[in-house]
Amino acid sequence: MVCSHCAEVLEEKLQSSNFQVKKIELGELTLDQPITDAEYQRLINVVQKNGFEIINDQGSKTVEQIKQLIIQLVRTNKELKGKLSEYLAKNLNKDYQHLSRLFSNVEGKSIERYFILQKIERAKELIVYGELNLTEIAYELGYSSQQHFSRQFKTETGLSPSHFKEIKENKRISIDQI
What we know:
It is a single chain. The chain is mainly alpha-helical. It has 3 domains: 4-49, no CATH class; 58-113; 116-177, Arc Repressor Mutant, subunit A, CATH 1.10.10.60. It has 9 helices and 2 strands, in the order αββαααααααα. The protein has a two-stranded antiparallel sheet with strand order 1-2.
């Protein structure tokens, strides 16, 4: 799951299917009690029917954890002190080379590319909201300058941020499809 609204919807659906949800937050679901194999199959059906999936293998769980850390980093405007690789390795308590290989194998793109795509999608949102100018957006997203931000934005979208701002009706990609 990516957003709190998704978590709320899924929690409501699970409760209406008689599952007692203890905790539901970004990327994690915990039930109050253990469930039987039959109940687990029913849980999978409810989750899938609502457009989500249950991830059980450790590699996929780790990839989802990487994605959640990056999304939280981009969405909360938390300042990244040091390198992304150090941040991820520290938060997941794993070697970055392992994380990088795993992510690339599962997602077909590098962690760094995923991070850039998340920042560009966030930039699109901030541009559309119109509350910040382009320099402020660049700063919010951790770019060293507005020029660096503009170059990367144009490379990824084919449009300059100013041109994108002019055509606000441009369609955005859902962050969970990146």
